[in-house]
Design goal:
This protein has 234 residues and is α+β, with helices and mostly antiparallel strands. The protein has helices at 3-16, 29-36, 40-52, 82-89, 108-111, 150-155, 157-164, 183-189, and strands at 56-59, 63-66, 93-105, 118-128, 131-141, 169-180, 196-206, 211-220, 230-231. The chain is elongated.
Length: 234
Amino acid sequence: MEKYQKIYSDLLKALQDNVYQPGDYLPSDGQLVIRYQVSRETVRKAVKTLANDGYVQRLPGRGSVVLDRKHFVFPVSTLESYREMVAQAHLDASNDVIVIKQNVPVPEKLTGSDSPVLSTLVVRRRWVDGEEMVLDYDYINQAVIDHVPHTAAKNSLFDYFENQLGLQIDYAVKRMTVEKGNVEDRQLLHVDEGMSMVVIRSETRLSDNRILSYTESRHRADRFTSVEFARRHK
């Protein structure tokens, strides 16, 4: 076993044994260097592996904060925008912007808290190969972004956040359920009353750990393929 793997294994066991709770910081790189008598690069490799596996987030100048994994049900991968995914799959895809509305409280089912979070709600309908496939409800944190242009919603929110506003998206936590379709599903996606929906509820964070957005994405179950908990590619 390589030295970094030993450090990784020890820290992972400590996390699994709840020695460190969500929101706690791991020992600093310097403390780990002294504890294991290894180079700083070896320590960084171990902690970076933990970060890539979704256990911690590295915050420059602050350390490595432990993430809440109780809802982590998917493997770590790259976090891609809808536009990026359809481009890679060579699909004929587009979207309609149904609603852009400011000062909308984020539903408690997304935040997991009764503390109010005001957002700009962006509702979009996704079309693939001429069929209505997905409804996306994006609640953009107004404490981070106070205005979302229609063109950004129409084209790509990720592109607007990263390339126009200069924000750095780090990771998303996603939870998947299968639920009965609701009235809006039937009205906007024109599905039958008995159609089930694959519902992905997610929380996206920036590299400084601020919450950028909450999303509820509703997919037709008969057209759904896969979804992941994912870390934004660097």
